[in-house]
Amino acid sequence: MTADKTLSVDEAVAVVSDGMTVGIGGWGSRRKPMAFVRAILRAGVKDLTVVSWGGPDLGLLCAAGRVRKAVYAFATLDSIPLEPHFRKARETGMIEAREWDEGMFYAGLLAASIRLPFLPLRAGLGSDVLRLDPGLRTVESPYTEEELVAVPALELDVAYVHVNRADARGNGVVLGPDPYFDDLFCKAARHAYVSAEELVSTDGLLEGTSARNLLVDRTMVEGVVVAPNGAHFTECPPDHDRDEIFQKAYAGTAKDPDLWQEFSARYLEVESEAAYQEAVEEDTRARAVRGGEGAGS
Amino acid sequence: MSTVITRADHCVVALAEAFRGDGEIFASPMGTIPSAAGRLARATFEPDLLLTDGVSIGVAGILPLGGSVGDNDTCTEAWMPFRKVFDTLWWGRRHVIMGASQIDRFGNQNIACIGPWEHPKAMLLGMRGAPGNTINHTTSYWVPNHSAKVFVPKVDVVCGVGYDRAAALGHVARFHEIRRVVSNLGVFDFETPERAMRLRSLHPGVTVDDVVAATGFEIAIDAGVPTTRDPTDEELELLRTQIDPTGLCAREVPHD
Questions:
Q1: Does residue B222 sit within a domain?
Q2: What's the mean per-residue pLDDT of chain A?
Q3: Which tens digit of pLDDT belongs to each residue from A143-172?
Q4: B125: which chain A residues are within 8 Å (Cβ-Cβ)?
Q5: Rounded distance, CA B208 to CA B15, Å?
Q6: pLDDT in tens, B92-131
Q7: Which CATH number goes with the domain that contains B51?
Q8: Range of the domain at B18
Q9: Domain total for chain B?
Q10: B86/A102 touch (CB, cutoff 8 Å), yes or no
Q11: In chain A, what are the domains?
Protein backbone atom coordinates (compact mmCIF):
# COMPACT_ATOMS: atom_id res chain seq x y z
CA MET A 1 0.00 0.00 0.00
CA THR A 2 1.54 3.29 -1.02
CA ALA A 3 0.85 6.61 0.60
CA ASP A 4 -2.03 8.63 -0.76
CA LYS A 5 -1.14 12.26 -0.06
CA THR A 6 -4.26 13.81 -1.52
CA LEU A 7 -6.09 16.26 0.68
CA SER A 8 -8.35 19.25 0.24
CA VAL A 9 -6.93 22.67 -0.53
CA ASP A 10 -8.26 23.97 2.78
CA GLU A 11 -6.56 21.12 4.66
CA ALA A 12 -3.32 21.93 2.87
CA VAL A 13 -3.27 25.52 4.15
CA ALA A 14 -4.13 24.57 7.74
CA VAL A 15 -0.38 24.32 8.36
CA VAL A 16 -0.04 28.09 7.84
CA SER A 17 -0.27 30.23 10.94
CA ASP A 18 0.12 33.95 11.57
CA GLY A 19 3.62 35.28 10.98
CA MET A 20 4.89 32.37 8.88
CA THR A 21 7.10 32.63 5.80
CA VAL A 22 5.26 31.29 2.77
CA GLY A 23 6.90 30.59 -0.60
CA ILE A 24 4.69 30.68 -3.68
CA GLY A 25 5.80 29.05 -6.95
CA GLY A 26 5.20 30.12 -10.54
CA TRP A 27 6.31 33.46 -12.01
CA GLY A 28 4.44 36.76 -12.42
CA SER A 29 1.00 35.85 -13.70
CA ARG A 30 2.13 32.40 -14.83
CA ARG A 31 1.27 29.01 -13.32
CA LYS A 32 0.65 30.46 -9.88
CA PRO A 33 -0.82 28.14 -7.20
CA MET A 34 -3.86 30.40 -6.93
CA ALA A 35 -6.16 27.79 -5.39
CA PHE A 36 -3.76 27.70 -2.41
CA VAL A 37 -3.61 31.50 -2.31
CA ARG A 38 -7.40 31.69 -2.21
CA ALA A 39 -7.48 29.06 0.53
CA ILE A 40 -4.95 31.09 2.56
CA LEU A 41 -7.22 34.11 2.15
CA ARG A 42 -10.22 32.11 3.36
CA ALA A 43 -8.23 30.75 6.31
CA GLY A 44 -7.74 34.26 7.64
CA VAL A 45 -4.03 33.99 8.53
CA LYS A 46 -2.10 37.25 8.64
CA ASP A 47 1.31 38.88 9.15
CA LEU A 48 2.78 36.61 6.52
CA THR A 49 6.18 36.96 4.92
CA VAL A 50 5.58 36.13 1.27
CA VAL A 51 8.48 34.95 -0.91
CA SER A 52 7.50 35.05 -4.55
CA TRP A 53 8.39 35.83 -8.16
CA GLY A 54 5.62 38.33 -7.63
CA GLY A 55 2.32 38.17 -9.41
CA PRO A 56 -1.34 38.34 -8.40
CA ASP A 57 -0.59 35.92 -5.54
CA LEU A 58 1.35 38.65 -3.81
CA GLY A 59 -1.14 41.31 -4.96
CA LEU A 60 -4.18 39.49 -3.58
CA LEU A 61 -2.52 38.81 -0.24
CA CYS A 62 -1.46 42.48 0.00
CA ALA A 63 -4.91 43.75 -0.96
CA ALA A 64 -6.48 41.57 1.71
CA GLY A 65 -4.04 42.89 4.32
CA ARG A 66 -2.35 39.54 5.03
CA VAL A 67 1.23 40.50 4.22
CA ARG A 68 3.67 41.86 6.77
CA LYS A 69 6.68 41.55 4.51
CA ALA A 70 7.26 40.81 0.84
CA VAL A 71 10.48 39.22 -0.44
CA TYR A 72 10.68 39.73 -4.21
CA ALA A 73 12.60 41.02 -7.20
CA PHE A 74 9.50 42.36 -9.00
CA ALA A 75 5.72 42.05 -9.09
CA THR A 76 3.94 41.94 -12.42
CA LEU A 77 0.78 40.71 -14.11
CA ASP A 78 2.71 40.25 -17.41
CA SER A 79 0.03 41.67 -19.72
CA ILE A 80 -0.32 44.48 -17.14
CA PRO A 81 3.32 45.35 -16.39
CA LEU A 82 2.91 46.51 -12.75
CA GLU A 83 0.94 44.56 -10.13
CA PRO A 84 -1.46 47.31 -8.96
CA HIS A 85 -2.34 45.96 -5.52
CA PHE A 86 1.29 45.29 -4.64
CA ARG A 87 2.14 48.74 -5.94
CA LYS A 88 -0.45 50.29 -3.70
CA ALA A 89 0.81 48.34 -0.69
CA ARG A 90 4.34 49.61 -1.30
CA GLU A 91 3.29 53.20 -1.95
CA THR A 92 1.12 53.40 1.16
CA GLY A 93 3.83 51.77 3.28
CA MET A 94 1.50 48.93 4.26
CA ILE A 95 4.19 46.27 3.94
CA GLU A 96 7.86 45.79 4.66
CA ALA A 97 9.92 44.99 1.62
CA ARG A 98 13.00 42.93 0.89
CA GLU A 99 13.74 43.72 -2.73
CA TRP A 100 16.54 41.73 -4.35
CA ASP A 101 18.01 41.21 -7.76
CA GLU A 102 16.34 38.26 -9.53
CA GLY A 103 19.52 36.20 -9.58
CA MET A 104 19.97 36.79 -5.85
CA PHE A 105 16.43 35.54 -5.33
CA TYR A 106 17.28 32.36 -7.25
CA ALA A 107 20.52 31.94 -5.27
CA GLY A 108 18.65 32.43 -1.98
CA LEU A 109 16.18 29.67 -2.87
CA LEU A 110 19.00 27.45 -4.06
CA ALA A 111 20.98 27.99 -0.85
CA ALA A 112 17.96 27.07 1.27
CA SER A 113 17.26 24.01 -0.88
CA ILE A 114 20.80 22.66 -0.44
CA ARG A 115 20.96 23.63 3.25
CA LEU A 116 23.69 26.22 2.93
CA PRO A 117 23.54 29.44 4.94
CA PHE A 118 24.40 31.52 1.88
CA LEU A 119 25.78 31.42 -1.65
CA PRO A 120 28.34 33.89 -2.96
CA LEU A 121 27.26 35.91 -5.96
CA ARG A 122 28.47 38.86 -7.99
CA ALA A 123 24.90 40.15 -8.46
CA GLY A 124 24.02 43.00 -6.14
CA LEU A 125 27.53 44.51 -5.95
CA GLY A 126 27.54 48.21 -6.73
CA SER A 127 23.74 48.44 -6.74
CA ASP A 128 21.46 49.79 -4.02
CA VAL A 129 20.29 46.29 -3.06
CA LEU A 130 22.98 46.17 -0.39
CA ARG A 131 22.07 49.63 0.94
CA LEU A 132 18.34 48.92 1.07
CA ASP A 133 18.64 45.52 2.76
CA PRO A 134 20.93 46.14 5.74
CA GLY A 135 20.76 42.44 6.62
CA LEU A 136 22.90 41.58 3.60
CA ARG A 137 26.60 40.86 4.04
CA THR A 138 29.50 40.41 1.68
CA VAL A 139 32.11 37.67 1.87
CA GLU A 140 35.77 37.62 0.85
CA SER A 141 36.71 34.83 -1.52
CA PRO A 142 39.24 32.56 0.22
CA TYR A 143 40.88 31.93 -3.17
CA THR A 144 40.99 35.36 -4.83
CA GLU A 145 40.84 38.92 -3.64
CA GLU A 146 37.21 39.34 -4.52
CA GLU A 147 34.48 40.45 -2.20
CA LEU A 148 31.14 38.93 -3.18
CA VAL A 149 27.57 39.19 -1.98
CA ALA A 150 26.74 36.43 0.54
CA VAL A 151 23.14 35.81 -0.52
CA PRO A 152 21.39 34.36 2.53
CA ALA A 153 19.25 31.24 2.22
CA LEU A 154 15.57 32.02 1.73
CA GLU A 155 14.25 29.45 4.17
CA LEU A 156 10.51 28.91 4.02
CA ASP A 157 8.02 27.55 6.50
CA VAL A 158 5.66 26.40 3.78
CA ALA A 159 5.76 26.30 -0.03
CA TYR A 160 2.92 25.96 -2.51
CA VAL A 161 3.32 25.13 -6.20
CA HIS A 162 0.93 24.25 -9.03
CA VAL A 163 1.60 21.78 -11.86
CA ASN A 164 -0.34 20.32 -14.78
CA ARG A 165 -0.61 16.79 -13.47
CA ALA A 166 0.34 14.87 -10.37
CA ASP A 167 -0.17 11.42 -8.93
CA ALA A 168 -1.50 10.81 -5.43
CA ARG A 169 1.99 10.40 -3.99
CA GLY A 170 3.15 13.83 -5.12
CA ASN A 171 5.04 13.26 -8.35
CA GLY A 172 4.29 16.30 -10.51
CA VAL A 173 4.63 17.03 -14.22
CA VAL A 174 4.95 20.48 -15.76
CA LEU A 175 3.84 20.59 -19.39
CA GLY A 176 4.33 24.32 -20.05
CA PRO A 177 7.47 25.88 -21.50
CA ASP A 178 9.10 26.91 -18.20
CA PRO A 179 9.48 24.99 -14.92
CA TYR A 180 10.38 28.24 -13.11
CA PHE A 181 11.80 27.43 -9.65
CA ASP A 182 9.04 25.32 -8.15
CA ASP A 183 11.29 22.44 -7.12
CA LEU A 184 13.55 24.86 -5.24
CA PHE A 185 10.56 26.37 -3.42
CA CYS A 186 9.56 22.86 -2.29
CA LYS A 187 13.06 22.01 -1.09
CA ALA A 188 13.55 25.36 0.62
CA ALA A 189 10.45 24.76 2.76
CA ARG A 190 9.75 22.73 5.91
CA HIS A 191 6.37 21.83 4.43
CA ALA A 192 5.52 21.77 0.73
CA TYR A 193 2.30 21.12 -1.13
CA VAL A 194 1.58 20.67 -4.81
CA SER A 195 -1.73 21.26 -6.56
CA ALA A 196 -2.45 19.89 -10.02
CA GLU A 197 -4.86 20.56 -12.83
CA GLU A 198 -5.36 16.83 -13.02
CA LEU A 199 -4.76 13.84 -10.75
CA VAL A 200 -3.45 10.85 -12.70
CA SER A 201 -2.27 7.37 -11.85
CA THR A 202 1.49 7.03 -11.64
CA ASP A 203 1.60 5.18 -14.95
CA GLY A 204 -0.28 8.07 -16.56
CA LEU A 205 2.22 10.77 -15.56
CA LEU A 206 4.22 10.60 -18.76
CA GLU A 207 1.38 10.35 -21.25
CA GLY A 208 2.46 12.40 -24.24
CA THR A 209 5.54 13.73 -22.47
CA SER A 210 8.92 12.60 -21.12
CA ALA A 211 10.53 11.99 -17.75
CA ARG A 212 12.32 15.32 -18.08
CA ASN A 213 9.08 17.12 -17.30
CA LEU A 214 8.74 15.45 -13.90
CA LEU A 215 9.71 18.60 -12.01
CA VAL A 216 8.40 17.72 -8.58
CA ASP A 217 9.00 14.32 -7.05
CA ARG A 218 7.26 12.82 -4.04
CA THR A 219 10.24 13.33 -1.71
CA MET A 220 9.65 17.08 -1.99
CA VAL A 221 5.99 17.35 -1.04
CA GLU A 222 3.79 16.16 1.78
CA GLY A 223 0.42 16.84 0.21
CA VAL A 224 -1.32 16.79 -3.17
CA VAL A 225 -4.38 18.84 -4.02
CA VAL A 226 -6.53 18.27 -7.08
CA ALA A 227 -7.29 21.76 -8.39
CA PRO A 228 -8.64 21.96 -11.93
CA ASN A 229 -8.30 25.54 -13.18
CA GLY A 230 -6.34 26.00 -9.94
CA ALA A 231 -3.94 28.55 -11.45
CA HIS A 232 -6.84 30.78 -12.54
CA PHE A 233 -6.62 33.63 -13.43
CA THR A 234 -2.92 33.13 -14.22
CA GLU A 235 -1.88 31.04 -17.21
CA CYS A 236 -1.20 27.32 -16.98
CA PRO A 237 -0.32 26.12 -20.46
CA PRO A 238 -1.37 23.87 -22.09
CA ASP A 239 -4.36 23.47 -19.73
CA HIS A 240 -5.56 27.04 -19.68
CA ASP A 241 -4.56 30.53 -20.82
CA ARG A 242 -4.48 33.53 -18.56
CA ASP A 243 -8.01 34.89 -18.04
CA GLU A 244 -7.22 38.40 -19.26
CA ILE A 245 -10.75 39.70 -18.74
CA PHE A 246 -10.77 38.54 -15.13
CA GLN A 247 -7.25 39.82 -14.55
CA LYS A 248 -8.16 43.24 -15.91
CA ALA A 249 -11.16 43.40 -13.60
CA TYR A 250 -8.97 42.35 -10.66
CA ALA A 251 -6.40 45.03 -11.52
CA GLY A 252 -9.15 47.65 -11.76
CA THR A 253 -10.20 47.03 -8.15
CA ALA A 254 -6.95 48.60 -6.90
CA LYS A 255 -8.28 52.04 -7.84
CA ASP A 256 -11.50 51.85 -5.88
CA PRO A 257 -12.11 50.37 -2.42
CA ASP A 258 -15.76 49.71 -3.28
CA LEU A 259 -14.79 47.70 -6.34
CA TRP A 260 -12.31 45.74 -4.23
CA GLN A 261 -15.00 44.99 -1.63
CA GLU A 262 -17.29 43.77 -4.36
CA PHE A 263 -14.54 41.61 -5.89
CA SER A 264 -13.55 40.23 -2.51
CA ALA A 265 -17.14 39.38 -1.58
CA ARG A 266 -17.85 37.66 -4.88
CA TYR A 267 -14.62 35.69 -5.31
CA LEU A 268 -12.66 35.52 -2.08
CA GLU A 269 -15.08 35.53 0.82
CA VAL A 270 -16.76 32.41 -0.50
CA GLU A 271 -16.96 29.07 1.25
CA SER A 272 -14.67 27.04 -0.99
CA GLU A 273 -12.51 26.81 -4.08
CA ALA A 274 -15.48 25.15 -5.79
CA ALA A 275 -17.62 28.20 -5.08
CA TYR A 276 -14.92 30.42 -6.60
CA GLN A 277 -14.76 28.28 -9.74
CA GLU A 278 -18.54 28.40 -9.94
CA ALA A 279 -18.53 32.20 -9.82
CA VAL A 280 -15.91 32.29 -12.57
CA GLU A 281 -17.97 29.92 -14.71
CA GLU A 282 -21.02 32.04 -14.16
CA ASP A 283 -19.10 35.07 -15.47
CA THR A 284 -18.08 33.14 -18.55
CA ARG A 285 -21.66 32.07 -19.23
CA ALA A 286 -22.91 35.63 -18.74
CA ARG A 287 -20.30 36.93 -21.18
CA ALA A 288 -21.27 34.28 -23.73
CA VAL A 289 -24.91 35.33 -23.49
CA ARG A 290 -24.03 39.01 -23.86
CA GLY A 291 -21.67 38.19 -26.73
CA GLY A 292 -24.39 36.15 -28.42
CA GLU A 293 -26.87 38.99 -28.14
CA GLY A 294 -24.28 41.40 -29.48
CA ALA A 295 -23.60 39.20 -32.48
CA GLY A 296 -27.31 38.95 -33.26
CA SER A 297 -28.07 42.64 -33.13
CA MET B 1 4.74 49.68 -48.01
CA SER B 2 6.32 52.81 -46.63
CA THR B 3 9.78 53.61 -47.92
CA VAL B 4 10.09 56.76 -45.82
CA ILE B 5 12.77 56.25 -43.19
CA THR B 6 11.23 57.03 -39.79
CA ARG B 7 12.64 57.98 -36.41
CA ALA B 8 11.76 54.49 -35.22
CA ASP B 9 13.92 53.02 -37.98
CA HIS B 10 16.93 55.01 -36.78
CA CYS B 11 16.30 53.84 -33.21
CA VAL B 12 16.13 50.23 -34.36
CA VAL B 13 19.31 50.50 -36.41
CA ALA B 14 21.17 52.26 -33.58
CA LEU B 15 20.20 49.50 -31.13
CA ALA B 16 21.09 46.81 -33.66
CA GLU B 17 24.54 48.44 -33.89
CA ALA B 18 24.92 47.93 -30.13
CA PHE B 19 25.14 44.17 -30.84
CA ARG B 20 27.86 44.54 -33.49
CA GLY B 21 30.82 42.33 -32.69
CA ASP B 22 29.03 40.27 -30.05
CA GLY B 23 29.22 36.99 -31.98
CA GLU B 24 27.71 33.82 -30.52
CA ILE B 25 26.01 35.08 -27.35
CA PHE B 26 22.51 35.21 -25.89
CA ALA B 27 21.03 38.59 -26.88
CA SER B 28 18.20 39.74 -24.58
CA PRO B 29 16.49 42.81 -25.98
CA MET B 30 13.50 43.85 -23.83
CA GLY B 31 10.56 45.57 -25.49
CA THR B 32 9.38 46.24 -29.03
CA ILE B 33 12.10 48.42 -30.59
CA PRO B 34 14.98 46.54 -28.90
CA SER B 35 13.48 43.22 -30.09
CA ALA B 36 13.28 44.51 -33.65
CA ALA B 37 16.91 45.62 -33.28
CA GLY B 38 18.10 42.20 -32.12
CA ARG B 39 16.28 40.48 -34.97
CA LEU B 40 17.65 42.97 -37.48
CA ALA B 41 21.23 42.54 -36.24
CA ARG B 42 20.94 38.77 -36.45
CA ALA B 43 19.36 38.84 -39.90
CA THR B 44 22.28 40.96 -41.18
CA PHE B 45 25.68 41.55 -39.56
CA GLU B 46 25.50 39.43 -36.36
CA PRO B 47 24.14 36.09 -37.62
CA ASP B 48 25.35 34.12 -34.59
CA LEU B 49 23.25 35.89 -31.94
CA LEU B 50 20.89 33.64 -30.00
CA LEU B 51 17.44 35.22 -29.62
CA THR B 52 14.28 34.02 -27.92
CA ASP B 53 10.58 34.54 -28.52
CA GLY B 54 10.62 36.75 -25.41
CA VAL B 55 9.52 33.83 -23.25
CA SER B 56 11.65 30.68 -23.17
CA ILE B 57 12.11 29.42 -26.71
CA GLY B 58 15.28 30.16 -28.69
CA VAL B 59 14.10 30.82 -32.24
CA ALA B 60 15.97 30.08 -35.48
CA GLY B 61 14.95 32.27 -38.42
CA ILE B 62 13.35 35.70 -38.48
CA LEU B 63 10.46 35.91 -36.04
CA PRO B 64 8.08 38.83 -36.70
CA LEU B 65 7.33 41.05 -33.69
CA GLY B 66 4.37 39.64 -31.80
CA GLY B 67 4.75 36.29 -33.58
CA SER B 68 5.42 32.88 -32.14
CA VAL B 69 7.77 30.10 -33.16
CA GLY B 70 6.62 28.55 -36.43
CA ASP B 71 5.65 31.88 -37.96
CA ASN B 72 7.67 32.95 -41.01
CA ASP B 73 9.27 29.47 -41.22
CA THR B 74 10.96 29.84 -37.83
CA CYS B 75 11.75 26.86 -35.62
CA THR B 76 13.05 26.16 -32.12
CA GLU B 77 16.82 26.01 -31.69
CA ALA B 78 17.23 26.45 -27.93
CA TRP B 79 15.44 26.27 -24.59
CA MET B 80 15.97 29.23 -22.29
CA PRO B 81 13.69 28.98 -19.23
CA PHE B 82 14.28 31.58 -16.51
CA ARG B 83 16.64 29.41 -14.49
CA LYS B 84 18.89 29.03 -17.52
CA VAL B 85 18.78 32.77 -18.12
CA PHE B 86 20.49 33.29 -14.77
CA ASP B 87 22.98 30.49 -15.34
CA THR B 88 23.78 32.09 -18.70
CA LEU B 89 24.06 35.63 -17.42
CA TRP B 90 26.34 34.59 -14.56
CA TRP B 91 28.40 32.81 -17.21
CA GLY B 92 28.57 36.14 -19.03
CA ARG B 93 27.68 35.27 -22.61
CA ARG B 94 24.83 37.72 -22.78
CA HIS B 95 24.07 41.28 -23.83
CA VAL B 96 20.85 42.73 -22.48
CA ILE B 97 18.98 45.84 -23.62
CA MET B 98 16.90 47.12 -20.72
CA GLY B 99 14.73 50.18 -20.28
CA ALA B 100 15.50 52.94 -17.78
CA SER B 101 13.01 55.03 -15.82
CA GLN B 102 15.99 57.11 -14.72
CA ILE B 103 19.65 57.10 -15.80
CA ASP B 104 22.53 59.31 -14.69
CA ARG B 105 25.70 60.46 -16.44
CA PHE B 106 27.67 57.38 -15.37
CA GLY B 107 24.93 55.02 -16.49
CA ASN B 108 23.43 54.16 -13.11
CA GLN B 109 19.91 53.05 -13.95
CA ASN B 110 16.67 52.94 -11.99
CA ILE B 111 13.61 50.84 -12.80
CA ALA B 112 12.55 50.13 -9.21
CA CYS B 113 10.57 53.17 -8.06
CA ILE B 114 10.39 56.96 -8.11
CA GLY B 115 10.97 58.75 -4.83
CA PRO B 116 12.55 57.28 -1.71
CA TRP B 117 12.59 53.47 -1.86
CA GLU B 118 11.33 53.16 1.71
CA HIS B 119 8.19 55.06 0.77
CA PRO B 120 7.99 55.34 -3.01
CA LYS B 121 5.97 57.99 -4.73
CA ALA B 122 5.53 55.57 -7.60
CA MET B 123 6.42 51.90 -7.31
CA LEU B 124 7.71 50.70 -10.69
CA LEU B 125 9.19 47.35 -11.72
CA GLY B 126 11.40 46.64 -8.73
CA MET B 127 15.06 45.63 -9.05
CA ARG B 128 14.28 42.86 -11.54
CA GLY B 129 17.59 41.53 -12.91
CA ALA B 130 19.33 44.89 -13.36
CA PRO B 131 21.95 44.56 -10.59
CA GLY B 132 23.00 41.09 -11.76
CA ASN B 133 22.91 41.90 -15.46
CA THR B 134 25.10 44.97 -15.21
CA ILE B 135 27.77 43.42 -12.98
CA ASN B 136 27.99 40.22 -15.05
CA HIS B 137 27.87 41.17 -18.73
CA THR B 138 27.32 43.84 -21.36
CA THR B 139 24.26 46.05 -21.01
CA SER B 140 22.66 48.67 -23.25
CA TYR B 141 19.66 50.86 -22.54
CA TRP B 142 16.69 52.00 -24.57
CA VAL B 143 14.79 55.17 -23.65
CA PRO B 144 11.84 55.96 -25.95
CA ASN B 145 11.08 59.33 -24.29
CA HIS B 146 14.30 61.29 -23.77
CA SER B 147 13.65 63.94 -21.13
CA ALA B 148 15.20 65.55 -18.07
CA LYS B 149 12.91 63.33 -15.97
CA VAL B 150 14.74 60.26 -17.29
CA PHE B 151 18.27 61.64 -17.78
CA VAL B 152 18.74 62.85 -14.20
CA PRO B 153 21.71 64.05 -12.12
CA LYS B 154 21.06 61.32 -9.55
CA VAL B 155 18.79 58.30 -9.80
CA ASP B 156 16.45 57.60 -6.87
CA VAL B 157 17.52 53.96 -6.65
CA VAL B 158 20.52 52.31 -8.31
CA CYS B 159 19.36 49.09 -9.96
CA GLY B 160 21.73 48.84 -12.94
CA VAL B 161 25.32 49.68 -11.93
CA GLY B 162 27.05 52.64 -13.58
CA TYR B 163 30.72 53.20 -14.41
CA ASP B 164 31.54 55.20 -11.27
CA ARG B 165 30.29 52.45 -8.98
CA ALA B 166 31.88 49.71 -11.08
CA ALA B 167 35.22 51.54 -10.92
CA ALA B 168 34.94 51.77 -7.12
CA LEU B 169 34.49 47.99 -6.95
CA GLY B 170 37.64 47.31 -8.99
CA HIS B 171 38.58 43.85 -10.25
CA VAL B 172 35.40 42.09 -9.12
CA ALA B 173 33.44 44.32 -11.53
CA ARG B 174 35.63 43.45 -14.54
CA PHE B 175 32.71 42.13 -16.61
CA HIS B 176 30.80 45.42 -16.38
CA GLU B 177 30.19 47.23 -19.67
CA ILE B 178 27.49 49.68 -20.65
CA ARG B 179 27.87 49.80 -24.37
CA ARG B 180 25.15 52.15 -25.57
CA VAL B 181 22.21 54.19 -24.50
CA VAL B 182 19.81 54.81 -27.37
CA SER B 183 16.95 57.26 -27.03
CA ASN B 184 14.42 58.73 -29.42
CA LEU B 185 16.84 61.66 -29.84
CA GLY B 186 20.21 60.03 -30.31
CA VAL B 187 22.86 57.50 -29.41
CA PHE B 188 25.09 57.76 -26.34
CA ASP B 189 28.14 55.91 -25.03
CA PHE B 190 30.65 56.26 -22.21
CA GLU B 191 33.80 56.65 -24.28
CA THR B 192 35.36 59.50 -22.30
CA PRO B 193 38.34 59.34 -19.92
CA GLU B 194 36.06 59.39 -16.86
CA ARG B 195 33.52 57.03 -18.46
CA ALA B 196 30.73 59.60 -18.44
CA MET B 197 27.91 59.76 -20.94
CA ARG B 198 28.81 61.15 -24.34
CA LEU B 199 26.65 62.02 -27.31
CA ARG B 200 27.70 59.54 -29.97
CA SER B 201 25.28 60.48 -32.74
CA LEU B 202 22.12 62.46 -33.32
CA HIS B 203 19.14 61.00 -35.12
CA PRO B 204 18.35 62.97 -38.30
CA GLY B 205 16.32 66.07 -37.50
CA VAL B 206 17.57 66.34 -33.90
CA THR B 207 19.97 69.08 -32.81
CA VAL B 208 22.55 69.20 -30.04
CA ASP B 209 20.36 71.83 -28.36
CA ASP B 210 17.41 69.42 -28.36
CA VAL B 211 19.52 66.86 -26.49
CA VAL B 212 20.97 69.37 -24.04
CA ALA B 213 17.51 70.74 -23.26
CA ALA B 214 16.13 67.26 -22.59
CA THR B 215 19.03 66.06 -20.41
CA GLY B 216 19.28 66.81 -16.70
CA PHE B 217 23.07 66.64 -16.48
CA GLU B 218 26.04 67.81 -18.47
CA ILE B 219 26.65 65.47 -21.31
CA ALA B 220 29.98 65.16 -23.14
CA ILE B 221 29.63 66.53 -26.66
CA ASP B 222 32.47 66.41 -29.17
CA ALA B 223 32.78 68.88 -32.02
CA GLY B 224 30.97 67.71 -35.14
CA VAL B 225 28.65 65.07 -33.72
CA PRO B 226 27.78 62.56 -36.46
CA THR B 227 24.27 61.64 -37.55
CA THR B 228 22.89 58.17 -36.75
CA ARG B 229 23.23 56.12 -39.90
CA ASP B 230 20.24 55.31 -42.08
CA PRO B 231 19.09 51.73 -42.45
CA THR B 232 20.35 50.12 -45.64
CA ASP B 233 17.83 49.12 -48.32
CA GLU B 234 18.21 45.52 -47.18
CA GLU B 235 17.58 46.45 -43.55
CA LEU B 236 14.54 48.51 -44.46
CA GLU B 237 13.13 45.68 -46.52
CA LEU B 238 13.67 43.23 -43.63
CA LEU B 239 12.00 45.58 -41.16
CA ARG B 240 8.98 46.31 -43.34
CA THR B 241 8.33 42.83 -44.67
CA GLN B 242 9.61 40.35 -42.08
CA ILE B 243 10.51 41.80 -38.68
CA ASP B 244 7.83 44.45 -38.18
CA PRO B 245 5.21 44.05 -40.92
CA THR B 246 2.46 45.59 -38.78
CA GLY B 247 4.39 48.74 -37.85
CA LEU B 248 4.69 48.24 -34.07
CA CYS B 249 7.97 50.16 -33.84
CA ALA B 250 6.45 53.32 -35.30
CA ARG B 251 3.78 53.13 -32.63
CA GLU B 252 6.42 53.19 -29.88
CA VAL B 253 8.29 56.13 -31.41
CA PRO B 254 6.16 58.31 -33.67
CA HIS B 255 7.80 59.98 -36.65
CA ASP B 256 8.19 63.74 -36.32
A1: yes
A2: 96
A3: 999 999 999 999 999 999 999 999 999 999
A4: 74, 76, 81-82
A5: 20
A6: 999 999 999 999 999 999 999 999 999 999 999 999 999 9
A7: 3.40.1080.10
A8: 7-252
A9: 1
A10: yes
A11: 9-104+154-246 (3.40.1080.10), 118-152 (no CATH)
